[in-house]
């Protein structure tokens, strides 16, 4: 892009120049550094060479010294001494030479050191300084460029202003031209009217026409100009119209915004008012609350004061009570302290008392037991006496209720009758004749199993006391033997009831007696004795007399099960 201002161009050119200069200086610097490096390597090589020479000389010296030593040991005498002197001189010379070489080496090193601040380095430093300066200058030039660009901007703005003003003046000119064209039209009208006038004024017309030709030309010119200006005006009007439209739209927006603002303002005012009202209300409420709280607090305060007075009087009355309480407390404390001792003592005496009481009870128990045993003996004796008095063999009759098998009609019912006054008598109607029997007791059909059992119950006691007991049922089939002895499960007969009683009696005496109960079941049928619990029920057994002379009978080989309860027996039977 073409720079519009020469100053900027100049600055840019100088910057480019400076850049070039910088590059060139950097190149020079590089070349100088290379040269310096080359010289340094040369010097290092020289010093190495010199060091090598010095080393050689030292080696020579060492050899000479060895030679001297060797000669000294070999020769001895004056020749050797001479040789030694010679060698010493040689040695001395060599040492001098070495010193000289060392001096040269030092000189070279010094030179090398001196070269550290030689002209090249100085030049280098100068160039670098210059480079810095140039960079600074470039910076300044850039700042200046920015300033200039700002200026250009300002000028462009001013140009826009000027254009605006030019437009205004053009508008003015357009107005002027319109005015002129109006005047031209007027004058043309005047000419036309004059033409319409009579001949005497034709001269005037002619002159006017001559003038008019000139005027026409001018008019033409001005019309063309007018044309141009009108075009311009048209354009301007277009612009104006657009601007007006813009203005209108922006006015509309402004109106809208104003309306909105007004709306917001009213809203704001309303809110403000509301807020003020609320604040007022809150303030009122606060004041009211404060007043209320104050009055309440006063009332409470009064009550508290009264309470305080009451509490004070209470306190005065409580003090003596407290004193007595303290006294009580102290005595209680003493008691508590003494309590363990007291307790121990009490326990000791209680234990002694209890021991004594136990002893007493024991002795009473023993006494009672003794008495009980005596009573038991007495009872046994009485029982046996009773049994004896009742008769060792007793015969009871039981008449069962009439069954279907007995037939129907009045005969069946009246076959057996009882004596109302004697329960031991039974009347039997046999072939039209009444026969009477006397037994120990007769049970009528309505007698229960319980009643029948009560009559044989004493036999169980005899059995426990060690006597042999036998209950024997006799009668024709269907007379009721099984019913009386076995009964039903709901209404058991003598067997079950006797066993129940036997075991309960044994249990109640278990503390003092040892009992062993065993069960055997045998059948005597057609003179044959059979073991019903045995493994071979067909085997025939025999009844024998006990060999101990007691006169007791026993059946050798009869199966015996020892049992503990009625249930055990029932299990054995099944
Ligand atoms: P047995 O054993 O003597 O042959 P049962 O005991 O079998 O005779 O009795 C025969 C019938 O009579 C059975 O049906 C039995 O229930 C009934 N029976 C016997 N004695 C009574 C009684 N005292 N009360 C009611 N029914 C009885
Ligand atoms: Mg039977």
From TrEMBL:
Gene3D superfamilies per record: Kinesin motor domain
Domain spans labelled Kinesin motor: 392-574
Binding site for ATP: 475-482
Cell location: Cytoplasm, Cytoskeleton
Main location: cytoplasm
Top-level division of the source organism's lineage: Eukaryota
Sorted UniProt keywords: ATP-binding, Coiled coil, Cytoplasm, Cytoskeleton, Motor protein, Nucleotide-binding
Record's keyword annotation contains Nucleotide-binding: yes
Matching PROSITE patterns: KINESIN_MOTOR_2
InterPro entries in the record: Kinesin-like_fam, Kinesin_motor_dom, Kinesin_motor_dom_sf, P-loop_NTPase
One GO location term (cellular component): microtubule cytoskeleton
UniProt KW Nucleotide-binding keyword: yes
Coiled coil: 8-197, 240-292
Pfam families: Kinesin
GO biological process assignments: microtubule-based movement
GO molecular function: ATP binding; microtubule binding; microtubule motor activity
Family, as annotated: Belongs to the TRAFAC class myosin-kinesin ATPase superfamily. Kinesin family.
Protein name: Kinesin motor domain-containing protein
Species, as recorded: Bambusicola thoracicus (Chinese bamboo-partridge)
């Amino acid at each position: 892009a073409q720079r519009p201002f020469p100053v900027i161009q100049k600055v840019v050119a100088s910057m480019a120049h400076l850049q070039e200069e910088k590059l060139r200086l950097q190149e020079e610097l590089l070349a100088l550094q290379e040269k310096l490096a080359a010289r340094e390597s040369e010097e290092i090589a020289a010093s190495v060479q010199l060091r090598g020479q010095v080393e050689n000389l030292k080696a020579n010296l060492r050899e000479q010294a060895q030679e001297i030593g060797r000669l000294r040991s070999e020769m001895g005498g004056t020749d050797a001494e001479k040789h030694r002197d010679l060698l010493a001189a040689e040695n001395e010379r060599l040492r001098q030479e070495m010193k000289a070489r060392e001096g040269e080496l030092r000189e070279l090193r010094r030179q090398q050191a001196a070269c550290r601040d030689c002209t090249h380095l100085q030049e280098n430093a100068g160039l670098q300084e210059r480079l810095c300066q140039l960079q600074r200058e470039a910076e300044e030039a850039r700042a200046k460029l920015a300033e200039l660009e700002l200026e250009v901007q300002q000028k462009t703005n001013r140009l826009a202003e000027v254009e605006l003003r030019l437009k205004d003046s053009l508008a003015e000119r357009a107005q002027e031209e319109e005015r002129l064209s109006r005047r031209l039209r007027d004058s043309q009208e005047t000419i036309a009217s004059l033409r319409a006038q009579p001949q005497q004024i034709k001269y005037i017309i002619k002159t006017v026409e001559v003038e008019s030709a000139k005027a026409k030309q001018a008019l033409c010119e001005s019309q063309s100009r007018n044309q141009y200006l009108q075009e311009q005006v048209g354009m301007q009007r277009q612009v104006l119209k657009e601007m007006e439209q813009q203005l209108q739209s922006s006015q509309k927006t402004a109106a809208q915004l104003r309306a909105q603002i007004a709306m917001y303002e009213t809203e704001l005012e309303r809110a403000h008012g509301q807020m003020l009202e609320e604040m007022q209300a809150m303030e009122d409420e606060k004041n009211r609350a404060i007043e209320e709280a104050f009055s309440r607090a006063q009332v409470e305060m009064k009550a508290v004061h009264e309470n305080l007075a009451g509490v004070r009087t209470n306190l005065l009355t409580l003090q003596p009570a407290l004193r007595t309480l303290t006294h009580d407390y102290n005595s209680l404390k003493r008691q508590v302290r003494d309590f363990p001792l007291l307790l121990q003592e009490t326990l000791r005496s209680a234990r002694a008392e209890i021991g004594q009481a136990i002893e007493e009870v024991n002795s009473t128990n023993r006494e009672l037991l003794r008495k009980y045993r005596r009573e038991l003996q007495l009872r046994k004796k009485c029982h046996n006496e009773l049994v004896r008095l009742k008769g060792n063999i007793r015969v009871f009759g039981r008449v069962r209720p009439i069954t279907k098998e007995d037939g129907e009609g009045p005969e069946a019912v009246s076959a057996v009758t009882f004596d109302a006054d004697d329960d031991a008598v039974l009347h039997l109607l046999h072939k039209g004749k009444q026969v009477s029997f006397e037994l120990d007791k007769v049970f009528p059909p309505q007698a229960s199993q319980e009643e029948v059992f009560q009559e044989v119950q004493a036999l169980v006691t005899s059995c426990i006391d060690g006597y042999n007991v036998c209950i024997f049922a006799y009668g024709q089939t269907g007379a009721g033997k099984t019913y009386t002895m076995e009964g039903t499960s709901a209404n058991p007969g003598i067997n079950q009831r006797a066993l129940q009683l036997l075991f309960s009696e044994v249990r109640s005496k278990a503390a003092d007696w040892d009992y062993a109960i065993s069960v055997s079941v045998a059948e005597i049928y057609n003179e044959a004795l059979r073991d019903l619990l045995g493994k071979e029920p067909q085997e025939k057994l025999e009844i024998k007399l006990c060999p101990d002379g007691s006169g007791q009978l026993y059946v050798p080989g009869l199966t015996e099960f020892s049992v503990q309860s009625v249930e055990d027996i029932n299990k054995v039977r099944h």
